[in-house]
Specification:
Number of helices: 13
Structural class: mainly alpha
Order of helices and strands: HHHHHHHHHHHHH
Low-confidence stretches: none
């Protein structure tokens, strides 16, 4: 019993370390692209391999991020309780988890089709490369956005074995949406980033008010891109999807109303709750639209 409890505890800590719950941001868009590519649900093997590939890629990226950032995390009060900093998990465990996740991702990509396997390494370069971008550029938020924006592109390729404009535009919309909410989320670290040497971000560059205005513009362009996704998806995507995109616009406006330069107390609601509703809600609406069509 103590061994089982210890395993459960370690699993819980690991899932928290990689923020498994944040899969809600990328996975629904991967499934959305899969539905449109297949005109419905493809075979169960394809669905399973897409799920495995997305989870494997994301787990590898998060493990590498925690390894790369452990020194910075230790100095930042907001992140000083992360597992690799406190010692609840050691770095060797994180490296093993990274290696296993990479293997799972590559195996799933290879089983899907040759193009998925060919694109697996460039995809992973973006996902792992993000961890160093904050040391290089103010615009690391866009690299994080691209990492999540690759999910619908990959799912499309998994079904069709080819690239197309629909997943490319959907990937761009997701990239801009994620970059926008990551700018908002990183406002929490403004004081730390401002004093830290060698770290960059939009809030550090523009200040809190400027960063929030920048995020609003990003989300405005993202909304236009989502409208374009609907247009490219016609006639499979109809009025129901367009209504869903309108709801996305309302939720984005609500998200920005929750935070201000003088009040970040509701950042978790703006970040997780609202954006989770956007990704899950749009996926469910598209699923219904495809099924009804």
């Amino acid at each position: 019993m103590p061994a089982a409890q210890g395993l459960l505890r370690k699993t819980s800590v690991f899932l928290e370390m990689i923020k498994f719950s944040h899969s809600v941001f990328a996975l629904p868009f991967a499934l959305l692209a899969m539905l449109v590519a297949a005109g419905g649900w493809p075979g169960p093997a394809t669905v399973a391999l897409i799920l495995v590939a997305v989870v494997g890629a994301r787990t590898a990226a998060m493990c590498f991020n925690r390894i790369a950032d452990r020194d910075v995390d230790a100095e930042n009060p907001r992140t000083a309780n992360r597992a690799l900093v406190t010692g609840e998990l050691d770095t060797r465990f994180a490296w093993v988890a990274l290696a296993v996740s990479l293997a799972v991702f590559y195996v799933a990509a290879g089983l899907l089709n040759p193009l998925c396997l060919l694109l697996a390494t460039p995809c992973m370069a973006v996902l792992l490369g993000y961890s160093w971008m904050k040391r290089v550029t103010d615009y690391s938020h866009f690299v994080l956005g691209a990492a999540l924006g690759l999910a619908p592109i990959g799912a499309w390729v998994a079904v069709r074995g080819e690239l197309a404009w629909f997943p490319a535009l959907l990937g761009l919309a997701v990239t801009l949406w994620v970059a926008g909410f990551d700018v908002l989320y990183s406002c929490q670290d403004y004081d730390y980033d401002r004093e830290a040497e060698g770290l960059h971000s939009i809030p550090k560059r523009l200040g809190l008010a400027g960063a929030m205005a920048f995020a609003r513009r990003l989300h405005g362009v993202a909304l236009l891109a989502f409208v374009g996704v609907w247009a490219l998806g016609m006639p499979m995507l109809g009025a129901l999807t367009l209504a869903g995109v309108a709801v996305v616009g309302v939720l984005l406006i609500y998200q920005h109303s929750l935070v201000s330069p003088s009040d970040l107390s509701r950042i978790d609601a703006a970040f997780f709750t609202t954006n989770g509703m956007i990704s899950l809600g749009l996926f469910l609406i598209v699923w219904a639209d495809v099924a009804l069509g």
